[in-house]
Amino acid sequence: MSPIHTPVLGREVVDALAVRAGGSYIDCTIGEGGHTVMLLAAVTPPPRVLGIDLDEEALATARTGLTAFGDAVTLAHGSYVDIVTLASEAGMDGADGILLDLGLSSLQLETAERGFSFRQEARLDMRFDRRQKRSAWETVNHTRERDLADLIYRLGEEPRSRRIAAAIAGTRPIETTTELAKIVAKAIGGRLGRIHPATRVFQAIRMAVNEELENVEEGLARSVEMLKPGGRLAVISYHSLEDRLVKGFIGRESRDCLCEPEVLECQCEHEASLRRVNKKVVKAIAEEQRANPRSRSARLRVAERLRA
Ligand code: SAH
User: Fold this and answer.
1) In a mutational test of the pocket of ligand 1, which residue from 6, 28, 50, 54 has the highest number of ligand atoms less than 8 Å from its CB?
2) What global pTM score does this model have?
């Protein structure tokens, strides 16, 4: 396994996807390849895995760690929103299992110049895909104060969003991560317990820059299209906004009719495409939570494709 990266809920994901020899799997967020290595090593001969990521540097790291598996693995630079096209380009016409491990990787967070971390000085960036034009710099410096407040409130679930947005607007232009962190800390006061006051603001800006919630919604729908009947979908989320979205999606897709309860005869003609596999979310066991702080907030949801 990759020495740099132990995947979150690795064992649980391999079980959830019921990996079998001869199967085809898609890792929508391959990152450094932590989960993919486990999928490949789960059975002999290894299954086929298509690994997708927006981050070219992550793909390069993954590629190095996966050479032993030869052509069992195909890597694709792009968004999982385009899973159908990317899979078809890789010659895969359906999947027995699909994984989405949402958010950012520890490598991205720890690489100072990517600008994700308020602990390390760097130009405000936060793009998963460096081909993208808009970075955190544009979002921080060119969003109207009121929209910035809304964004911080909605995506950061930060109740003091107006005060923070006013402080940002009053200090612009802001060039670096640590500059932004200081402005936020000054606006709402110092450290509250163990969580740095800029945590939620950085989360909000990162999610806006990468359009994360929109992508999750779209990516889930496209992933279901790619699943073969009986194929499994596994999604790991790291905060309540994402998890609510995933839960809502699986809930809707597990029901045959989405009409309001007072409607006597179904008018929506919606047909269930999924069956929920675990009613309760899967969380990391205490041992993993101790060893890997990133796993503490992880929530795994699993569903199975009903029909084509
Ligand atoms: N499971 C991986 C870690 C994934 S971290 C491992 O075990 O190594 C999340 C990854 O998702 C990051 O590398 C990020 O660049 C990628 N990502 C985020 N949004 C994406 C999208 N819309 N399409 C493809 N990859 C995305």
Assistant:
1) 54
2) 0.96
